[in-house]
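User: I'm preparing a small set of examples for a lab meeting where we compare how different chains pack in three dimensions. I only have the primary sequence for this one, and I'd like the structure in token form so I can line it up with the others. Please keep the answer compact; I'll paste it straight into my notes.
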Amino acid sequence: MSSGPSTPLRWVRVQGQKQAQSGSHRFPVASPSSGSPKAAFPSRTSAFGFESVIDFTDTQSTPSLPDTPQCTSRAILSSQILPNPPLGGSSGSGHTNPTSTPQVAYRPYTDHPSTSRKRARDDVENQPPMPLHPYVPTTPGAAYGTYPDWRHPPSPVPHTFLSAWHPGTPDPFRSVTITAPTDNLSTDSERPTKRKYRRETQKLSLLLDFIYDELGWSIGDVLYALFDFGDDVHREPRHASGVACFLQGRTIHTAAEIIDLWMRHPDGRVSDDSIEHGKMFSARQEDLQNAKSVRVALTCFATQRVMKKLIKEAEDVVRPESGLHASRKKISGRLPDTPKLVWNDIGAATLSRANTIIKTYQPLLRTLLMAVAVRDFDPCNEDKTLRQRRPPELVVTNVISDLDFSRSNRANYIALARGLLHFALSAPFDIFQYQSRTGAMPAYSTVISTLEGLAKQEAERVVEHGKDTTTVKGLITDNIQHFLLQRDLCIGRVNAMKVGMAATYVELHGCPVGALDFADREQRLKENTRASLSVSRLFNLIDQEHLATVGVLFLLRTLAVNIPELAKYQDEVSLRYRTRGRKLRVEPRASNVHPLGSSGKNETVTTELKDALVDFLEQAGQEHGQWNGQLMPICGDGLTFEKIVQVKHYLRFHPDPFESLSFLVPVLAPWHTVWTDIGRIFQTHWGTTLSHDPSTLAFSAGKIHRRTPANLSKPDFKEALELLETVHDARILDCFRIYYKTDDIFDHFKALASDNKIPSFEDLETHAKAVYRAFCTHHSGERALDPVQDAASTSNEHPNTTRWKAVVPLGAAWTRAQHTTSTISDSAASATKQKAKAAKSKMSKRRNPRGRLNELEEPFTGDRVLANAINFIGDAITAREFLYAVSEGDVGRVYEAMKMMLFTFAGTRHSRYTQYLLEFISSLEFESSPALRETILKSLLVNLSGEPGRFSPADLIQEYFNRLLQAIAERKGAEYSTHFICHVVSRNLHHLARLRDDFYDGVGLAERSGRHAKPHKDAELRILLKEYKIEQLHYRRPGRTFASEDENHKFSDFRQGLANLRHGKLSKWVNESLFMRGTSKHNGIPGLTNDMPDEESDDSSGNDDDGKGWSGGMEGVGEATESAIPKLAYMRLVDGDLLVERLDVEADAQRILDSLEAGELDEILEDDTD
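Assistant: Understood. Below is the structure token output for the 1170-residue chain.
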């Protein structure tokens, strides 16, 4: 029995993949020093026909592994270094020697790491000690010893493997144990020794020795051969599975860790001043191919891969189907389903929509730019990047959109929207040039061409909607004019008034289609119900109970708005308005309005008005021979309303409904009506500038330093309304002060609040009813004209009068001489002359409502001042209730107020609006079906925003559009019928006006409205309350009057109007209207009746021209004063309070005008050649 080597050997188990015959092979492997690191070396052997693994893993020092194959510590043996001679065998003496035949024991191989580690642990427990740096002899049977140069030991594995294999051995795809010959080894009956695992450094040393010395490869060669693939590359199954395991991340150390080590490894560092360092992150392909340093290679590779991805994203996003194409017309080669740009695409959602598109098509670029725009950017949680100033998502969206527009001028969605916004804001032409050059927006000519294309789309949409018989629609029209002042006068260039007409098409929602039944309307007209119209019938149309309800609610609202301790009841008051005071409420929904092309016709000329109406109807899809058979409501101010009625009368002989325009239903505009009513209130209650009468508006205006309006019949709407509201609220609060018998209404409720005795809402409502009956009705005003002193106990006084006197206290005795020291603001001499001239009118023959002359047979013992104050409160309640109802969208309440205005207008010199309201109310009540009446009333209001409390009168919206168009035409010196005004500007006015607010809303600036807050009026209220208390305005003071003797018994405008209608005004209008319709019952001259003549028909000082007369004096001088041009104001309801905001038409028009100055028409219509 031969003796083994004196140096112990390490026993190595070789694992395969497939099972084979039973048997065992053992071979000795040189063991490095116990202090050397771990090592593992691969070796491929094709001589065995399989990939074997020599496992050097030290399970005692290695942590538990996941359930994956042990791929990181395997060594593949190369077939080129395996010698051919096999090992010899020996007899079974229990020991083996180098010449003995090995015994091979096979067992199934498992990839489960727990099984492998358990077996390895069992082997380690019985492993014999090993010397330092042993080596294996190169020939079988040679003695084992220590390698002379331990720093460069030869790899013993190929020779040992050679001695362990010979032809005829079992299938090597089994896990085998190769046993090397030694004298000290025991037989099968003895317990075999186990191998010892090496550290990583030891394994790595053996692996490198094998690669360098035996294979003659470098690490690069090994990695290239390991990861090379292709059709001409043959990979063994073990090779393929190992590479796949690594590349798919199913190993302990993944590819990401390896790349990170490469990038951070100090051996791959390049100096900053070297040429190689300048190639880092290079996008050039040759720099990547010639890169030497791993850092240069990795950065170049990453840069070029990212660049390719960004290019692919950019190509995807500029395609038509992505949504960034904003074309105004169809382009050849474009996808047929790609939509054109419409106005709905431009607005608040523009940036949000573009951001969604960029997220979908360019996620990588967006993420990179977000990381640049935001410090500490977290891609997993973008909510952390939200900030108030310069929101990064908006910044990045704009930057990417500019890049996309630079790549393709068709991906111009954001760029074109930005150009339209600059046009709407009247940006200078230089801005367009600069921004177009830098790629931020298209050329100016493209913007103008886009506007023209959008106008054509609007026209097509209106025609399509107008021809649809399943929709309900209406028109709003008004005249428009401006004075053209020529710079260079010559033949053909003279100063002249340019007139025209404009209209807006409105889609009416929530209205039944059957309401526009033309046949039903004609049948009702043939019944000629208005022939039997009477004053009592008109008076019975007023819902007196509703007026009392909203009147009480108005008093409660005044308390809740002006008394801080009662502010908690504002919501309760609004709820009562929406329930108890509700009549016909329009649902808050955005109205679709479409401004039509303007016309150069003059509405005062009947033939031109007819041509303009036909033009507007054609734009609305109604042409001769193509009329859809439906009625068409058309809304206009007083003069327009009257002229349309006249045109219908003149054309009634045409048999065709379209030629006779019989399908048009004239609608009286609400805003011009209430504006005229405010003028009536000022005319009636203003008084003279130097008057000492505390019931006049002039007295109150002087106390709070307000100027007298230049034209009392047509005052500035906003300023007049603010003054009216301030004086009205002060007088209502003074009435409550008297009711609560306190000296200061504010201190009264403050004391109640401190004692926790604030009355409940029900108690306040009871108090408001008492105040309303005593100070707000026409009956109470009439009682103030009767003897107001306390009656004797034996007198036969009416119970209502007694109750009224119980609420209204008796004041101090009054004499005219006591009231000569009041301070009145003497502001305008012109207003004084105007009122002095009005005072010269003949009033002595006017009859009072009772039918007797105002001949005073006894001294006047009533209170003319108190009666005027009560009448003012009642008139102001009607006007302000009208405005509140408009803002809330309750057209039923608006209609009730218009019924009241019919009688108040009839009691003054506003005879035109008396006729307008008679025509309008008669048409609704007696010649329209209930459904048509509801549809017409709903056409009075427009809600552009769709929000509650944001309704506007339809004619106010049209007036705003007219002012914009007027300013543009005046600046350009163009007629209203020119192509540019009619087809480019006019149809886009609505969208250009809303564009700024929409974009502000889209970028989060909607909370900053840019408007002035409503000023507080506490100081004015306290001043007026103090004056009213001193003057005892709302007390009964017998004989108090500042009027002439013939006016002491004059009743309110409402009572006077009722009397005027009874004494001839109504019958006169009925006969005239029947004559114009051709259904007159007598053959006399129209307007002459047997009724008593109407003395109130003098229109010499009553202007019902709807603000059109302001330009009458411009022919001579070419300019008008600022006060002569009526201002526009917008009303909206906020927390139960009516806010009146001036519409800055001049500023809006100026923004549009500045953009129009950029170039001539022939220049702006050029196509974009960018």
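A couple of notes for your slides: The chain has a mean pLDDT of 76. DSSP finds 41 helices and 16 strands in the chain.

User: Perfect, thanks.
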